[in-house]
User: Which sequence fits this backbone?
């Protein structure tokens, strides 16, 4: 299954509280993704919480967009990516 | 987690809670083999938190006395072990068990109690009568499908006080639960519920061994039970196993003679059920296991006898007789029955079955005359074509042609005619043209019937090639010939195909002509083929000339019709075109779903696949999503194979669009040039216009070619406003934005608004870049949150909407948001416009409907 990086912008910043509400919000996203066959692997968040870079596995870019539509998360750009490990290269 | 056992589990937990308080109960977990009794009991004791004593009975011909208690002693019960070893007084032993249970909250499980020995059943009676005063649950699991074979258990259970007994009969899993299990295992659920009868053990085994047919464990379980039957009962079981689905009791008696005793034995074994005079296996898997165990000569003999009895039985279906004829290897009967069955299935529109029946006939056709074999092959090809297996259809007709070539001009002419259409559908258009010309060469000397077919087919091919005038001319000749010989089928086909050709130059008159063919199609006994074909022609041709509202209506009608008639090939092609139409109308996510669905179904190169590739490729290019490149390359390969304008032009235009968005003008030019000559040759107004527009955008000064479709002609003449209006009238927002993007500052702002709403990032970026270059003020990108809510409402507009939903007036909203009432009024106007409603109340309702507001908030 292809892997995608999804760039998102949150103009007012993204806040996920470190409590049961936050856990519920994350699980809600995971469930909605599952309906589209999409898996949220993990995300990187900018210090001001306005940009996120999310790594997702999914069958198609369309499935990623459908999942985002149901979770009401914005998408700036989807890029297909693969892993490049610097320590894999040896001199 | 166990599926669909929550209620039973909860009941057992409640019973355990009562037992902890000193009010114990007996729980009876019953159901057929493999239903999940043990799994449920295990899940219960795992989470119950009580002490567990677990013993099982075994299916030995002479059971070990008190086997379950020995299990419990072995597991470490110090109190019981010495008493069992000495084999002493039973009363003392039972008292010891009672004391054991009185000590602490305990669950005592006796598994497979249908195999219990007499002493264990005595213990059950003894404990069951005293359980109400103990902090314990006595859980018995047993099969209830062979209770007749365990009368002692039934008697023992009858002695238990009903007030302290919980009965939990377990049912088979629903189709939904089976589908969920399949999904968890990452496998296809198709047929699984039916084969397993919802039995969790069978489901699990089938999922674990997907390629084995009947898993060995299932086979052993079923055959173990079958082995206990006496020879008469076993014969009946074998007979029932060779009947797919069910066998009439009447039929079994005709084959075997009186069966009353054997029937009782089979029913008591739990393998068979009787319903309304029909015998069937409790599980399809069990049937297959028994069927596979029947020795081959016996099975052939049984099938032959069933066939003979069915031939005498009035009303026995053709399909059934074909089945037994095949299994009995009775070639004469297969050749007699299968073609009839195929025709019957085809007339009902069951193309897959028709395909299978005619294939069956071919297996026994080796000794027939060449002409007779060619007829069977032709028949097979017809059904394969309708079942969307083009390659099989083409191969079969090639074989038929080789058999009769030069010996029978009339038949050969028809074969060439019929070969042309699947060739075109498989994108082998040049070969299709050759086939059609051969048919035309032979048709000159033949009767009107052959001519009507050959002329109509040539009309179809010319229409596919967008040789509009030729198509209409051949169509008129076909219509004339069809009238002469009274062939309504060809009359309808010629009207539909020449009408489709007419649509490309005169939409209204073309549609009228196709509809004339559609009406005649309603009289035909062709399984609905002509009607679906007519809807398809109306929908796809309207789509090609950007009459999109009509196109969508026709395609929806046609898809609904094709779905009910099992006309796959027509349904898939219409679905691909539906994706294209939805895309142009701005329904992007629905377009993506439709295109992906077609690509998943249509793995090999076909007309449907190439159009779905264009739709999905266009979507990804316009969204700037990954994965467009490979779609565009495959589309080009398939379009080249067909060599036709209707595939090459859209693919080349799309590739030009992708190159242009990527800033590669030379590549964009090359793509547009590659199809331009063909488009001009065919004078196709829309393709010529589209390709000319790309050439102009790619930097060539391209005057509007003659006969160019209106929106393109206006754009090429520099009238971006007129062009944008024309696209808007046709309901094409992206095209409208492309036209506006070439206009003044205000127009470009409107273009950006449309593109933001669609989520067309690459073109929006390009428009912004060029506005900056031109020194124009560039509006900020719509904020991400705006794009997320679909209606394009800004954060502030959402705030206003939420306050509106509370029923507040503007003044109060203004106060709440520290804004002037006039600003709030502006926001309100924007909200009404974006939600396309006329009042505040409608705005709130529309927002709730679209999920922008919670139903209550």
Assistant:
């Amino acid at each position: 299954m292809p892997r995608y990086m999804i760039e998102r912008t949150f103009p007012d910043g993204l806040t996920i509280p470190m409590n049961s509400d936050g856990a519920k919000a994350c699980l809600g996203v995971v469930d909605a993704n599952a309906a589209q066959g999409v898996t949220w692997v993990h995300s990187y968040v900018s210090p001001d919480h306005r940009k996120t870079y999310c790594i997702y596995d999914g069958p198609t870019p369309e499935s990623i967009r459908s999942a985002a539509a149901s979770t009401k998360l914005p998408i700036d750009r989807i890029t297909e990516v693969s892993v490049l490990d610097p320590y894999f290269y040896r001199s | 987690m166990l599926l669909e056992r929550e209620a039973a589990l909860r009941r057992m937990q409640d019973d355990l809670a009562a037992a902890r308080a000193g009010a114990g109960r007996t729980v009876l977990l019953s159901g057929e083999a493999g239903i999940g009794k043990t799994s449920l009991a295990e899940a219960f004791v795992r989470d119950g938190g009580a002490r567990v004593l677990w013993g099982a009975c075994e299916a030995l011909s002479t059971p070990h006395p008190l086997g379950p208690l020995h299990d419990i002693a072995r597991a470490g019960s110090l109190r019981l072990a010495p008493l069992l070893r000495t084999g002493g007084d039973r009363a003392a032993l039972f008292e010891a068990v009672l004391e054991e249970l009185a000590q602490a909250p305990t669950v005592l499980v006796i598994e497979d109690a249908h195999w219990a020995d007499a002493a264990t059943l005595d213990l059950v009676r003894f404990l069951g009568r005293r359980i109400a005063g103990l902090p314990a649950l006595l859980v018995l699991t047993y099969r209830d499908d062979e209770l007749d074979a365990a009368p002692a258990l039934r008697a023992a259970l009858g002695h238990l006080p009903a007030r302290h007994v919980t009965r939990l009969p377990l049912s088979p899993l629903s189709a939904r639960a089976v589908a969920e299990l399949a999904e968890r295992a990452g496998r296809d659920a198709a047929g699984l519920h039916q084969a397993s009868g919802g039995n969790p053990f069978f489901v699990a085994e089938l999922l674990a061994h997907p390629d084995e047919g009947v898993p060995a464990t299932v086979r052993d379980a079923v055959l173990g039970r079958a082995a206990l039957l006496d020879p008469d009962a076993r014969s009946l079981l074998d007979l029932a196993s060779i009947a797919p689905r069910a066998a009439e009791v009447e039929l079994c008696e005709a084959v075997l003679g009186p069966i009353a005793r054997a029937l009782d034995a089979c029913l008591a074994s739990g393998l068979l059920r009787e319903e309304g005079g029909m015998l069937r296996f409790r599980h399809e898997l069990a049937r297959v296991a028994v069927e596979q165990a029947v020795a081959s000569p016996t099975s052939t003999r049984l099938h032959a006898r069933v066939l003979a009895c069915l031939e005498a039985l009035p009303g026995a279906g053709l399909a059934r007789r074909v089945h037994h004829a095949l299994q009995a290897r009775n070639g004469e009967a297969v050749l007699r029955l299968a073609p009839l069955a195929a025709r019957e299935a085809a007339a009902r529109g069951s193309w897959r079955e028709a395909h299978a029946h005619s294939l069956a006939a071919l297996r026994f056709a080796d000794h027939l005359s060449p002409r007779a074999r060619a007829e069977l092959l032709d028949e097979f090809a017809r059904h394969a074509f309708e079942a969307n297996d083009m390659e099989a259809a083409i191969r079969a007709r090639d074989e038929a042609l080789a058999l009769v070539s030069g010996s029978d001009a009339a038949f050969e002419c028809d074969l060439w005619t019929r070969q042309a259409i699947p060739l075109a559908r498989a994108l082998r258009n040049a070969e299709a043209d050759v086939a059609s010309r051969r048919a035309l060469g032979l048709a000159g000397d033949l009767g009107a019937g052959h001519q009507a077919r050959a002329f109509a087919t040539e009309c179809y091919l010319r229409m596919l090639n967008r040789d509009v005038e030729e198509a209409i001319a051949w169509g008129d000749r076909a219509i004339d010939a069809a009238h002469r010989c009274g062939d309504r089928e060809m009359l309808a086909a010629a009207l539909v195909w020449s009408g489709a050709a007419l649509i490309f130059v005169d939409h209204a008159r073309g549609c009228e002509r196709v509809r004339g063919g559609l009406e005649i199609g309603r009289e035909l006994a062709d399984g609905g083929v002509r009607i679906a074909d007519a809807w398809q022609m109306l929908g796809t041709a309207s789509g090609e000339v950007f009459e999109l509202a009509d196109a969508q209506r026709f395609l929806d009608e046609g898809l609904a019709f094709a779905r009910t008639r099992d006309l796959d090939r027509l349904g898939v092609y219409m679905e691909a075109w539906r994706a294209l139409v939805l895309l142009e109308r701005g329904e992007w996510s629905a377009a993506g779903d439709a295109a992906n669905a077609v690509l998943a179904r249509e793995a090999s190169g076909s007309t449907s696949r190439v159009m779905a590739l264009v739709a999905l490729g266009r979507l990804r290019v316009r969204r700037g999503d990954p994965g467009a490149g490979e779609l565009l390359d495959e589309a080009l390969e398939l379009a080249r194979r067909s060599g036709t304008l209707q595939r090459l032009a859209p693919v080349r235009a799309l590739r030009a669009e992708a190159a242009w968005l990527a800033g590669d003008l030379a590549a964009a030019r090359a793509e547009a040039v590659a199809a331009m000559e063909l488009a001009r040759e065919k004078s196709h107004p829309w393709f010529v216009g589209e390709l000319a527009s790309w050439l102009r955008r790619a930097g060539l000064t391209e005057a509007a070619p003659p006969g160019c479709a209106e929106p393109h002609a206006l754009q090429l003449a520099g009238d971006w406003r007129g062009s944008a209006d024309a696209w808007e009238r046709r309901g094409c927002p992206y095209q409208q934005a492309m036209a506006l993007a070439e206009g003044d500052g205000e127009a470009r702002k409107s273009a950006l608004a449309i593109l933001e709403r669609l989520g067309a990032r690459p073109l929006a970026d390009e428009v912004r870049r060029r506005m900056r270059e031109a020194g124009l003020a560039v509006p900020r990108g719509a904020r991400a949150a705006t794009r997320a809510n679909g209606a394009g409402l800004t954060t502030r507009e959402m705030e206003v909407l939420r306050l509106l939903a509370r029923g507040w007036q503007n003044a109060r909203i203004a106060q709440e948001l520290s804004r002037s009432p006039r600003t709030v009024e502006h926001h309100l106007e924007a909200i009404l416009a974006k939600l396309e409603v006329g009042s505040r109340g409608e705005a709130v309702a529309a927002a709730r409907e679209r999920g922008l507001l919670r139903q209550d908030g």
The first strand of chain A starts at residue 3 and ends at 9. The beta strands of chain A are 3-9, 39-45, 51-57, 77-81. Residues 16 and 24 of chain A are 10 Å apart (CA to CA). Chain A touches chain B at residues 2, 4, 8-12, 60-62, 65-66, 68-69, 72-80 (CB under 8 Å).
